[in-house]
Specification:
homodimer; globular; 356 residues; Isopropylmalate Dehydrogenase; 40% helix; 2 domains; 22% strand; two-stranded antiparallel sheet
Chain lengths: 356, 356
Amino acid sequence: KIHRIASIPGDGIGVDITEAAIQVLDTLSKTLGGFEFEFKTFDWSSRAYLERGWYMPPDGLDRLKEYDAIYFGAVGSPDVPDHISLWSLILPIRKALNQYVNIRPTRILPGTISPLTSCATSPTFLDWVIVRENSEGEYSGQGGISHEHSPNAVATEVSIFTQAGIERIMRFAFETARARPRKKLTMVTKSNAQRHGMVLWDKVFFDVAKEYPDVEIDKMLVDAMTVRMVLNPQSMDTIVATNLHADILSDLAAALSGSIGIASSSNLDPTRQNPSMFEPIHGSAPDIAGKGIANPVGAFWSAAEMVRWLGEGEAADGLMKAVENVTGAGIKTKDLGGDRNTREVTDAVCAEIERL
Amino acid sequence: KIHRIASIPGDGIGVDITEAAIQVLDTLSKTLGGFEFEFKTFDWSSRAYLERGWYMPPDGLDRLKEYDAIYFGAVGSPDVPDHISLWSLILPIRKALNQYVNIRPTRILPGTISPLTSCATSPTFLDWVIVRENSEGEYSGQGGISHEHSPNAVATEVSIFTQAGIERIMRFAFETARARPRKKLTMVTKSNAQRHGMVLWDKVFFDVAKEYPDVEIDKMLVDAMTVRMVLNPQSMDTIVATNLHADILSDLAAALSGSIGIASSSNLDPTRQNPSMFEPIHGSAPDIAGKGIANPVGAFWSAAEMVRWLGEGEAADGLMKAVENVTGAGIKTKDLGGDRNTREVTDAVCAEIERL
Ligand SMILES: CC(C)[C@H](C(=O)O)[C@@H](O)C(=O)O
Ligand SMILES: CC(C)[C@H](C(=O)O)[C@@H](O)C(=O)O
C-alpha cells in the first residue's frame, strides 16, 4: 500500500523537522513493511515568496487534493508580515480542504517534566485532547479598516459562527470524548461577554449533548479555563473550543506538558473528501532555525497522527512507543532539559523503530 | 478628607468579600487618620433582578457618577444567563464611565506558592502588571444572529478597534512600564490570524513606542504568550493586550501566582471625569457563596488600589503590607493551601493594620 504525502516544509525549523519526520516515516515503513510513503515536496515558503512573489501557485490547493495527506512544517518569517504569510498558506489550506477539525492531544511523555511539578503525582494528571473548531469563528478573515492612516481609523474583526459549523465540531468532540476511557467533555466559551455567536455555541453544545447521554459534560469560560488547566489539570479530559480559544489553550497545554516542541496538530476533513494536514503545533522559530537543534518530537507525534489517519494504527502506535522510549531514556533537546540535537534525537527514534 | 464610595456587592461571594473589604477600609482610616470613607451600598444583583426585573435603575449610571470611586464585588448567578447579568451591570459601567483602562497586577505574595514551583528561585520571578484595553475590541457587544432557531443560523461577534482607542491604552501602558524599575513592555496580539484590527493594534503600538525610547519593547502572539508566561515568567514586566486577550492572560497570571482569589482588577478612567471601579478579579463563585470561606485577599488588594487611586498612597502601602504580613504568617484560606475562613483572614488583616 502506497500513501502519497504532499510535504510542505515551509520556513525556519519547519525545514529541519520535516526532514526529520520523513526520515522517521521511511524507517517506519521499511521496518514494519506492508505500506510505503511517497513524498512530494512543495517549496511554498517565505523565502520562495520573497524571491518570486507567491507562496502557492494559483492551482496550489487543487494540486494538494491529489495526495492522501499533507505534512506541514511551519510558516512565518521575520521578513514577511505574519498575516501575509499565514493567509497565503496555512489558513487557506485549512479552509479550502474543509479541514474543519483540529485535534491537539497533550500528555506528559516519559522523561519529560511538567512545570506544574507540584501536581505531578500521577502520570495521568494531565492527559487532554483539545478539539479545535478550525474553519470559522475568529478566523473567518472578515472585517476591514476604514479611515486608514487617520486619527479616525476604525478596524473590525468579524467572527462568524454557524449552526452547521458548530454542530459538526460538537459531534466530532462528543465522538472523541466517547472513544476515550473517561468519556468527559469540557466545552469552552466566552458567552458572558460575547453575547451573539458565543451564546449560539453554548446552545448547540447543550442540544448535541442530548445525543450523547453517556458523555459527562461541563462548561467553562475561557479565562477561568486557564486557571483550571493550571490548578486542576486532572479534572479534564476532552476539551472543545472555538478557533481562537483553542489556539490559545492548546499552546498553554503544550507548555504545561513541558514544551511547545512536543505537541502535534492534526487538521482533519472528517468526510475524507480532501486530504488532511498534519503539523507540529510549534512555529518556525526563526531564532533557532538552521542550527539543527529544534525538538523533532512534535513533528514525530504529528507524523504518528498522520499514519493513524491513513489507517496504519499499529505503525502509529509503534512510532509513538519509539518516541517515548527515546524521551524516557533522556535523549532530549534543550527545551526539554536535554542536550541532544535534532539529528541525535531523530537517529535514536529510528534505532528504536528498528527494534520494534 | 472624606472619600465617597459606591459599593456594589452583587452576587455570590461578591457579598462576603465586599463586607470584608469595607471592614478593612474602615479600620485603615480609623487607624491612620486624615481621611474617611463614606460607603453607599447599591443592591444591584441577580437576586434583586429575579425579584424586580432589573439590575440598575434607569438612572443608575448617573447616580454612580456622584461618587469618588466604585467598589464592586462580583456578578453572575446560575439563575440568570451570564450575558444578561454582565451586560446589565459590570460591562455597561465600564463603558459608560469611560473606564478604558483595566489594570491587573500579579506577583507572588509572601507565604503563597506558585504552581510553577520549579521556577520559584527568586521572589521576583513573576512580577507583572497587565494593562487591559477595557472599552472596545472583542467586548464591543456588536454582532447578532440571523436565521435563529434554524439549521441555517449564522451569528457574528464584531470586534471594534479604533486608532484613538488603541493609542490611549498604549500611552497608558508605556507610562505604566516607564514607572516601573525594569521599564519593559510586552505587547500581545493575534495579528497573524486576525488581519484587520489586530494589525492596526500592532501598528499603533510601534508608532507610540517612538515616544518612549527609554522603554524596552517586545511583541508576542497571544498563544505563544501563554507558553512564555509558564516557562519564562521572569522575562516579562508590563504587558498590554486587548480586552479579551488580557482577560484570558490575567486569569492565567493569577493562577500562576497561586490563586485567582488574590488578584485585583482596577477599571480606571484616567481622565478622572468619572469614578473608577475596583473589583477582585474572581467571579461570584456560586459553589462557595455564603459559606464564609471566600479568599478576601483579592478584595483587599483591589481596595488598596482604590485607596491609592484616591490619593492615599501611604495608606495603600500600609494595607498591602498588612495583607502580606498575614499571608506570610500562613493565615490563608483553602485556595492558598490554608485552613482559615474569610472572617479570620479579615480580622488578622485588621489587627495588622492596627499595628502599622
Ligand atoms: C500560525 C497560526 C495562524 C496558527 C493559528 O493560529 O492557527 C498557529 O498558531 C497554530 O496554532 O496552528
Ligand atoms: C465577568 C466578565 C464579563 C469579566 C470580563 O470578561 O471582563 C471578568 O471575566 C473579568 O475579567 O473582569
